[in-house]
Amino acid sequence: MNQQLRILEGATFCICDELGDLHGKVEGLFAQDTRFLSGLRLTINGQRPGLLSSDKIEYFSAAFFMRNPLAGGLGHDVLSIRRERFVGDGMQDSFTVQNESMERVEFDLELDVAADFADIFAVKDYDFALGDPMGAKPLPDPRPVEYDEGRNQFLISDDGDLPLKTQVIFSEPGEVNGSTMTFHLSLEPRERWGVHVEVFPLPDGELVAPRFAELRFGEEVGRVRDSLAAWQLRVPQLRASWDALAHAFGQSVSDLASLRMRSDNGGIGKLPGAGVPWFMTVFGRDTIITCLQTLLFGPELARTALEVLADLQAKEDDARLDAEPGKIVHEVRHGKAARTWFERYYGTVDATPLYLILLSEVWRWTDDAALVRDLKQPALAALGWIEQYGDRDHDGFIEYERRTDFGLENQSWKDSWDSQRFHDGSLASAPLAPCEVQGYVYDAKRRVAELAREVWRDRELAARLDREAEELRRRFDEAFWVEGRGGYYALALDAEKRQVDSLCSNIGHLLWSGIVPPHRVDAVVDQLMGDELWSGWGVRTMSTGDAGYNPLSYHNGTVWPHDNSIVAAGLARYARWPEAQRVIQRMLTAAQHFNYQLPEVFAGMRRSETPFPIAYPTAARPQAWAAGAPVLMLQALLGLQPDRRRHALETVAPPELPSWAGTIRLSGIRAFGSLWDARLEDGTVRVDAA
Description:
- With 690 residues, the chain is α+β, with helices and mostly antiparallel strands.
- The chain has two domains: 5-225, Beta-galactosidase, Chain A, domain 5, CATH 2.70.98; 235-689, Glycosyltransferase, CATH 1.50.10.
- It contains 16 helices and 31 strands.
- The strands form nine sheets. It has an eight-stranded antiparallel β-sheet, with helices on one face. A four-stranded antiparallel β-sheet has the order 1-2-3-4.
- A hairpin with a 3-residue loop joins strand 8 (79-87) and strand 9.
- The protein is globular.
- The two termini are 50 Å apart.
């Protein structure tokens, strides 16, 4: 398979090969969950050019350098070809060809285009990681291409009931044959020729006037660059002697900038999509966790997420969408994808308690009581869902079971169909109560009790939630603790309340939530860092001692950076600093082998057997909560946490950090409307007002 490049600006993205061409099953220009361009192919005298080098420049742009093929009488290295691509609301390709020889040359440059308007789920089925290429339904045939000579443009229209169109405008005239534009060129020695190609996805079918196309793209380039510059200035600035940390943090800043979407409620550019390519949309769980990971960047992403998710919160009981009143949305889709599957889908068991945790955490970083008051009703509705609908059988635990045949079978963060396995490898049956979700609910109730007491002045609610949280903690320990194998918490309880007794990374989330009682902490930490779960690069999703373990299985033995960032934060919460630091060091060391851009997931093979972490070939990159992982790990390393009562940022880091952490200065951290600087020097962390 050719190397793919992914170029994006928010929810508009392009997947192309190393020459910039679109021609594969999963390549294309996507907007609103629809593929508006499925083919864009450059040839010289009928053959593809040879690659010299190509790469992204910024997340929204790329450059491709090529040489001519040996075709049509052209000799070696007669032509140099430069292709530059920008993705914003649409896509612009600029081609420059130069005659590098000492003689005049004649040749044809051809550009062939195609659009099939496939919905994103149909295309995703051809992804070997997350789809079923062998059993996938055929993709739609490319639609006819119409040429408008007066405006020198191709128009391609979908044949469905939506007014979808793709507009392809050329800056130079050529000879048209069907879907191909051919330029018959003659260049003198050192002479250059160029053409701009503007591609506009048109969900509403309204065309762009060609005379405004170049101006519009110029404004769009400026907008995107200004947005990136403003983002880079607003987030904290890091200087670190540890190169892996410095580079991974910088990559996170860029990746999270690229994933910001224009939210449906007008929060422009402030809501993180989940990841490229198939998840560039609002995902309740992913969006919330990314915001929790990145509160060091300030509260804007989180505030927007809280408001948008409140707007999308379910109001009615709708089994077709796995929706119930108060439930936080799992996934939002647009365009053809919304027609194919759903516009909103609510099959997530953890987004609702996580929503309450995020509301509390923003308040703890800002003391913004007005926000907590404004979101009181969505928060109480979320609490109501937990108590009325989440606890399906009223046993005190939160369970899930899908109610629609085309919903998700598993609705926790490990949502692949085969992720819930017993120690012997057999699959558990729903309704299922995942262990980490009970921890999230425990944490949510503790936090909402605090909000009720401090902001809403509802002491009765606060006292009730505190009692319920303590009772949940006690009953959880009784029901989920497994005495065998050294002691650990089961992955889940199945439909018959049996312990799903595989040993999984989810136990680290229990530390993060605070539900683990002190007398269990040593055993949980020993399991996380023991040979079966610890790969040497990170904590595996499933232990090597379980029959279902597979280091290449999506959720049954791989290593997930976001998962490990939560584990590290959980270890830090319980002051298990050596173990937290070990996770952080190894995960950021692993980032070096991925050009400092941590992927969604990588293989769980043992570090002692692999000289570098083994890539999972179709992992999403960039992915929001993978990009958020270095940020949360830096926060955990420095022990940073807000003190709301003092309106101060403080550190709880141990007095001596390891020498490998080097010197760190993180300046411009925003908390309580002020700026703070954190420094690590000579093994000691200090925090001062900027």
